[in-house]
Design a protein that fits this description.
By secondary structure, this protein is an all-alpha fold. The chain has helices at 21-26, 33-45, 60-64.
Length: 65
Amino acid sequence: MKKSIPPADLLQRYITNTCTEEERRAEGHEIDDDERALMAQALSENSVIVAQMTPFFETDDAAKG
Protein backbone atom coordinates (compact mmCIF):
# COMPACT_ATOMS: atom_id res chain seq x y z
CA MET A 1 0.00 0.00 0.00
CA LYS A 2 1.51 3.31 -1.11
CA LYS A 3 0.93 6.29 1.16
CA SER A 4 0.60 9.84 -0.05
CA ILE A 5 2.69 12.30 1.95
CA PRO A 6 1.86 16.00 1.55
CA PRO A 7 4.70 18.51 1.26
CA ALA A 8 5.91 19.75 4.63
CA ASP A 9 5.14 23.39 3.90
CA LEU A 10 1.41 22.83 3.36
CA LEU A 11 -0.50 23.89 6.44
CA GLN A 12 -4.19 24.27 7.03
CA ARG A 13 -5.24 27.87 6.52
CA TYR A 14 -8.19 29.68 7.98
CA ILE A 15 -10.18 31.81 5.54
CA THR A 16 -10.85 35.19 7.09
CA ASN A 17 -12.28 37.13 4.17
CA THR A 18 -14.54 35.94 1.38
CA CYS A 19 -16.03 39.27 0.33
CA THR A 20 -16.49 40.68 -3.14
CA GLU A 21 -14.92 43.99 -4.09
CA GLU A 22 -18.28 45.73 -3.66
CA GLU A 23 -18.76 44.24 -0.18
CA ARG A 24 -15.26 45.30 0.87
CA ARG A 25 -15.82 48.86 -0.38
CA ALA A 26 -19.12 49.01 1.54
CA GLU A 27 -17.15 48.06 4.68
CA GLY A 28 -14.78 50.97 4.05
CA HIS A 29 -11.77 49.03 2.70
CA GLU A 30 -9.43 50.79 0.31
CA ILE A 31 -8.56 48.63 -2.71
CA ASP A 32 -5.67 49.78 -4.88
CA ASP A 33 -5.36 49.11 -8.62
CA ASP A 34 -2.97 46.15 -8.19
CA GLU A 35 -5.27 44.41 -5.72
CA ARG A 36 -8.30 45.10 -7.91
CA ALA A 37 -6.50 43.56 -10.92
CA LEU A 38 -5.54 40.50 -8.86
CA MET A 39 -9.13 40.07 -7.68
CA ALA A 40 -10.41 40.35 -11.28
CA GLN A 41 -7.86 37.76 -12.44
CA ALA A 42 -8.88 35.34 -9.68
CA LEU A 43 -12.54 35.80 -10.60
CA SER A 44 -11.92 35.19 -14.32
CA GLU A 45 -9.82 32.08 -13.57
CA ASN A 46 -12.25 30.80 -10.90
CA SER A 47 -9.35 30.70 -8.45
CA VAL A 48 -8.60 32.02 -4.98
CA ILE A 49 -6.02 34.43 -3.61
CA VAL A 50 -3.91 33.12 -0.75
CA ALA A 51 -1.94 35.65 1.24
CA GLN A 52 -0.07 35.49 4.50
CA MET A 53 -0.13 38.72 6.43
CA THR A 54 1.77 39.71 9.54
CA PRO A 55 0.09 42.55 11.42
CA PHE A 56 2.26 45.02 13.28
CA PHE A 57 0.76 46.85 16.22
CA GLU A 58 2.25 49.81 17.99
CA THR A 59 2.97 49.01 21.63
CA ASP A 60 2.65 51.46 24.51
CA ASP A 61 6.46 51.60 24.81
CA ALA A 62 6.85 52.49 21.13
CA ALA A 63 4.16 55.17 21.37
CA LYS A 64 6.01 56.88 24.26
CA GLY A 65 9.13 57.13 22.13
